[in-house]
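Hi Y.,

Following your request, here is the sequence exactly as I used it, all 168 residues.
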Amino acid sequence: MALTADVLTVRYGTPGNSTQPVNQPLTANATVYRGSIATTRSGYLVAATAPQSADIVWGVISGAGPGTADMTTQGITGGTTNGAVTVEIATGSFFLASGTGADAITQANVGALCYVINETTVGLTNGSNTRPIAGVIEAYDTTEVNALGYVAVKLGNLGGTAGTAGPS
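Below is the corresponding structure, written out as tokens. Let me know if you'd prefer a different format.
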């Protein structure tokens, strides 16, 4: 189910120089939500409601780019042309929801790659090569009560399934 409002996504670990924010241009007329996984397709940010294997994962959407949108509204909507609005993306590691069934993540999966299922959920399988790599599973923490899930993921895939997970 696609998001209809901004969500709280909790950062894992301590931010440092490798967690610098980045800005990416938003696809025309698309709406993305703060706290959701940030993916680009053909150079423009798209909502991760239906991710594709070649999507590039950057981090988590944190806000609108400089001077481009009202920070008091839910979501960020693109202008009438691609790139008219930019979006700020927080990079690094974040707690995300774990998939279920074959996509369920456990402590045994720490260090493995995971894949984007939707805007706030990651899983173990690539969905028959249809999902992009989200990043590397860093922690499985059943005590984190403020997180969306219990899976800490270092987000970033350096180019979809053709690439390998790496620093974001």
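Confidence is low (pLDDT under 50) at residues 159-168.

Thanks again,
Q.
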